[in-house]
Design a protein that fits this description.
The complex is a heterodimer of chains A (451) and B (514).
Chain A: H1 8-18, H2 48-59, H3 83-89, H4 92-95, H5 107-124, E1 128-129, H6 136-151, E2 155-158, H7 164-177, E3 180-182, E4 202-208, H8 220-228, E5 232-237, H9 249-252, E6 256-260, E7 276-280, E8 292-297, E9 303-308, H10 314-317, H11 330-367, E10 373-374, E11 382-386, H12 391-400, E12 407-408, H13 409-412, E13 421-425, H14 432-450
Parallel strand pairs in A: 2-3, 2-4, 4-5, 5-6
Antiparallel strand pairs in A: 1-7, 6-7, 8-9, 10-11, 11-13, 12-13
Helix pairs in contact in A: 3-11, 5-11, 6-7, 11-14
Chain B: H1 28-31, H2 67-78, H3 101-107, H4 110-113, H5 125-142, E1 146-148, H6 154-171, E2 180-184, H7 190-197, E3 201-205, H8 215-221, E4 226-232, H9 244-253, E5 257-261, E6 281-283, E7 304-306, E8 318-322, E9 325-329, H10 350-386, E10 402-404, H11 416-425, E11 432-433, E12 443-445, H12 453-471, H13 475-479, H14 492-497, H15 506-513
Parallel strand pairs in B: 2-3, 2-4, 4-5, 5-6
Antiparallel strand pairs in B: 1-7, 6-7, 8-9, 10-12, 11-12
The chains are: A alpha/beta (451), B alpha/beta (514).
The structure holds pyridoxal-5'-phosphate.
Pyridoxal-5'-phosphate binds next to α6 of chain B.
Chain lengths: 451, 514
């Protein structure tokens, strides 16, 4: 067994040092009724080559984003990750170390966490950011709980334009934690009156930027109205690249900003692992969930970094902690930071402009098709289109033409009367040729529909 | 090594601040520049922007680096880290075992890494098959009928299991009455934090002199207001809870549910199936038992197995196998059951699923059993080889980790923390310190099965040397340690008192001071 260094001779010698005859003697505390005599009914060990064959066979059944014109988004985006990012995160010293609880020998991890926090602050326009959460959706759930703690109120008003999975995470926490959520009825284009839903128990208002359908709104006025009613504004950013080009939520007055950092450094990975971003105003620092890395000095006066303010956390505070999170997304935040460092502010701006330009080009092309209507007036790299037939059906037909054409809204919001609405994303990974193929394929598919 | 007289020498000061291979490295913000980039992008085609009134006037104020500079920056940082690849990392409860590189290679196959979570299911059949097969392995190894794959780490799995329990209690109409969750004093902090998050009242149960749940005290606490127990097995003292079946029976009789923290499943995988012990829910840290790398604190993955009594409440989404291939149940309407809801966007940590399955298939049923046996053997070897000079609070055999307290340091002027820091100078990552809370100055050593006997022998000899040194009054070796690491002890009080949580330019700092 290639991963086990002990030889039979070692085992024998070790057992005798311990003073027992067989390995079974070390398992004597297991109740007899639960002891297994033989191996469990699962396949025996395999060579590296055979495991590779098995997994390759499974991988081969999946259509990969890089091999077809690809336009899916809805909270997970196809971007090009520089080769050096993957090299960096595969360094043994990063990949195979634990949470930096011994700062003298984990300055590598701690320094990149400090850099990560700084980058998240600058991108969101917020003064403090933590060292990551699991992903954007769980970060958003935690933000609502944090707003409850700060305001000592227990109700959240949630935009109907929040990603339905993120909404699902909050709903689940609300069912389980006994708090209420309220949302406006909304259509793709409706303007939401979130303020009207605020009542005395409301702790927070949650909005997405750009929203689930792609629209971009300035939340500055909303922020002051929300705050004047004693509530916090939580702004959720599922596509972090957008902040290369858009006003920052912090500059609009957001109290808490959560986000999904996958687009920087991390692949699609069928939904995970990703990296949750969490930033807030300084005055709320002590109510934040998760790890924080801070600067200090060592015994020689040299600058160094440590995990700090851990009296908020479960390992110190137990049932009084701000969250139960322990393991977070360490290595994914390194990928984020490495990619962001390679881009720099200028590169990120360029990347964001390229994303937006591709989306505008695509929107114009699709809008020119009879029966297709772009319904999102403003957008970054993703927009909604209305189709003359159920979107799921069109997407399946596009698969036949080797185009992954987007995410039908009905897959996430089955009861929304939006069966004919499709979310379409375009990024720097799409060439102009991809856009042309998409347009032609959709025209073709729609001919079949009307015929 | 003891023949050498330890000579106290100041480390030579250099002009650069570097010390040979230990290179000082500034922050990106001090070395990068806003007009530098390590990425070449295609030109932006001219279009009419549709950003409404939300375009930012300027680019983000973040410096960039060219590729060679960026690589050098991160490689230098990496050299300041201890890692399992470089040496023993005996952090108890954390299971720092070897991370096979085959798993990394498999997780990077485009067929797994380059697929979108919301592509049509017809285009991701292989991914769903992998999830289904992983689920099969986890259910079979635990003898449990269902598993929720979506939890993102151990603590998230705890939340999943406890949410299923809460949903089951609610379905029985007992939510108002069953408010108490019993948690042993030795439990990991995530257990009480999770119970509290769901509004339960945490009630601690004491340990007995054997380091296990005090059965009588436990039974005394049972009642019809008890929702669940959260018990770690093997427990955080590294001991198997001998009375676990009796605990489960008594709890079930009283109408409660059994949550088992499965962080230590690596000690018993292939030899004991938790389902045979009467548990109702248990998370499995794929980043411990099944070797997915810890990555400096994550990502992890915490699939949670559920009993017959809880499986109807399993969260969305989950994979089902049908006649036309695999399907993903993402909506309550598609599910014939009573899922309690959704824990996370999308479907869980696919990248970790691939690594874990690659590991399981490599070891196979026989190899996984050997994994548990070697992990337990290595820990007992350490315990047996050190218990004459260090103090073990509980009699062995232990399971996968050996627990010591600070009794052996009494009167030496050396504390657990100092002892741990001295290990750093000897080239080791310290063991887990001051956890579990039930013993004084705890030192929890988990060698794992992937350490050779030679490595353990050297480690044991080193600890014996250190104990001898502490007993000989060489306190400075400890209280000044570490002296040879990239940094000496860091001022944690200062970090907490005046938190500096991001880099700020000199102007910003000056402004803030005004
Ligand atoms: C006993 C125990 N329970 C729970 C956890 C939490 O797991 P995670 O860090 O994956 O959330 C840990 C890990 O540190 C643990 O050791």
């Amino acid at each position: 067994m290639r991963y086990l260094p002990l030889t039979p001779t070692d085992r024998g010698a070790m057992l005798s040092r311990i003073g027992v005859d067989t390995i079974d003697d070390l398992f004597i505390d297991v109740p007899e009724a639960a002891r297994l005599d033989g191996p469990i009914n699962l396949p025996p060990h395999q060579s590296e080559m055979q495991v590779e064959r098995d997994l390759l066979a499974m991988a081969a059944q999946n259509k990969t984003a890089s091999t077809v014109p690809f336009f899916c988004g809805a909270g997970a985006y196809k971007h090009h990750v520089p080769a050096s990012v993957d090299h960096i995160i595969q360094r043994s010293e990063f990949l195979t170390s634990y949470t930096p609880y011994q700062p003298e020998i984990t300055q590598g991890t701690l320094q990149y966490l400090f850099e990560f926090q700084t980058q998240v602050c600058e991108l969101t326009g917020m003064p403090v950011a933590n060292a990551s959460m699991y992903d954007g959706s769980t970060a958003t759930g935690e933000a609502v709980l944090m707003a409850h703690r700060i305001t000592r109120k227990k109700r959240a008003v949630i935009s109907a334009r929040l990603h339905p999975h993120y909404r699902g995470v909050i709903d689940n926490l609300s069912d389980m934690g006994g708090f209420e959520v309220a949302s406006p009825d909304d259509s793709v284009n409706g303007v939401e009156d979130l303020i009207a839903l605020i009542d005395e128990d409301t702790s927070s208002v949650v909005v997405q930027y750009p929203d689930f359908f792609g629209s971009i709104r300035d939340y500055s006025t909303l922020a002051s109205e929300v705050q004047s009613r004693g509530c916090l504004l939580i702004v959720v950013v599922p596509e972090i690249i957008s902040l290369g080009l858009l006003k920052r939520p912090g500059d609009m007055g957001a109290d808490i900003v959560t986000g999904e950092g996958q687009s920087l450094g991390n692949g699609l990975n069928f939904g995970g692992p990703y990296v949750g971003l969490f930033a807030a105003k300084e005055k709320y620092l002590r109510q934040m969930p998760g790890r924080l890395c801070g600067e200090t000095v060592d015994a020689d006066g040299k600058r160094g970094f440590v995990l700090t303010l851990s009296t908020r956390e479960q390992h110190i505070r137990r049932d009084k902690a701000t969250s139960n999170i322990c393991t977070n997304s360490g290595l994914c935040s390194l990928a984020f930071t490495a990619h962001m460092t390679l881009l720099g502010g200028q590169g990120l701006r360029h990347l964001a402009e390229l994303n937006h330009a591709r989306a505008v080009q695509l929107a114009d092309k699709l809008d020119s098709i009879t029966g297709v209507e772009v319904v999102t007036p403003t957008f970054f790299n993703e927009f909604a289109i209305r189709l003359p037939a159920p979107a799921e059906q069109i997407v399946e037909a596009l698969v036949e033409k080797s185009v992954l054409g987007g995410v039908p809204v009905s897959r996430l919001m089955p009861d929304s009367d939006m069966d004919d609405v499709l979310l379409v994303a375009a990024t720097e990974a799409n060439t102009e040729a991809d856009l042309e193929i998409y347009e032609a394929a959709l025209r073709d598919v729609l001919k079949g529909v009307s015929a | 090594m003891n023949e050498m007289t330890p000579m106290k020498q100041e480390r030579k000061q250099t002009f650069t601040g570097h010390q040979a291979l230990i290179l000082e490295e500034k922050l990106i913000f001090e070395i990068g520049s806003a007009d530098k980039s390590g990425v070449d992008l295609e030109p932006v085609p001219p279009v009419n922007t549709r950003l409404g009134d939300c375009m930012a006037p300027a680019k983000p104020d973040l410096p960039g680096l060219s590729e060679p500079e960026a690589l050098r920056h991160f490689v230098r940082l990496s050299q300041k880290n201890h890692s399992i690849d470089a040496g023993l990392y005996p952090l108890g409860s954390c299971t720092m075992k070897h991370n096979p590189r085959l798993n990394e290679k498999m997780a990077r196959l485009p067929g797994f890494s380059d697929i979108h979570p919301l592509q049509p299911v017809s285009t991701v059949q292989g991914a769903l098959e992998l999830m289904d097969e992983l689920a099969h392995w986890l259910k079979t190894l635990t003898n449990m009928p269902a598993v929720a794959l979506s939890p993102k780490a151990g603590a998230h799995g705890e939340l999943c299991g406890m949410m299923a329990i809460r949903a089951a209690i609610e379905a029985r109409g007992e939510l108002e009455t069953r408010r108490r969750v019993l948690v042993p004093e030795s439990a990991h902090g995530t257990n009480p934090a999770t119970a509290a998050l769901l509004g339960f009242k945490v009630d601690e149960i004491p340990a007995n002199a054997d380091g296990r749940v005090d059965l009588a005290a436990f039974k005394d606490k049972l009642g019809d207001d008890v929702a669940a127990i959260m018990l770690t097995n093997p427990n955080t003292c590294g001991l198997f809870e001998r009375d676990i079946i009796e605990i489960a029976d008594a709890l079930h009789e009283a109408g409660g549910y059994f949550y088992c923290d499965g962080a230590n499943f690596n000690a018993i995988v292939g030899r004991v199936r938790p389902g045979d012990l009467g548990i109702d829910a248990m998370h499995i840290n794929l980043h411990k038992t099944f070797s997915t790398p810890h990555g400096g604190g994550g990502p992890g993955s915490g699939p949670t197995v559920l009993s017959d009594r809880l499986k109807a409440f399993a969260p969305l989404p989950y994979v089902v196998a049908g006649e036309n291939g695999f399907d993903l149940i993402e909506l309550e309407a598609q599910s014939g059951d009573q899922p309690f809801g959704r824990m996370v966007a999308f479907h869980g940590q696919m990248g970790m699923f691939v690594r874990a399955l690659s590991y399981m298939k490599s070891h196979g049923s026989d190899g996984l059993r050997q994994v548990a046996e070697d992990a337990v053997l290595n820990a007992n070897y350490v315990l047996a080889s050190l218990q004459d000079v260090m103090t073990a609070p509980f009699a062995g055999p232990c399971m996968h980790e050996a627990l010591f307290d600070d009794g052996f340091l009494k009167g030496t002027g050396v504390e657990t923390l100092d002892f741990a820091k001295a290990m750093i100078d000897e080239g080791y990552h310290p063991m887990t310190m001051y956890f579990p809370l039930v013993v004084h100055g705890a030192m929890l050593i988990e060698p794992t099965e992937t350490e050779s006997r030679d490595t353990l022998d050297l480690f044991i000899a080193t600890l014996r040397d250190l104990v001898r040194s502490a007993n000989a009054g060489e306190t400075e070796r400890f209280t000044n340690a570490p002296e040879l690491a990239p940094r000496r002890r860091l001022d944690e009080t200062r970090a907490a008192r005046q938190p500096i949580l991001r880099w700020q330019s000199a102007e910003e700092t000056a402004q803030a001071a005004e």
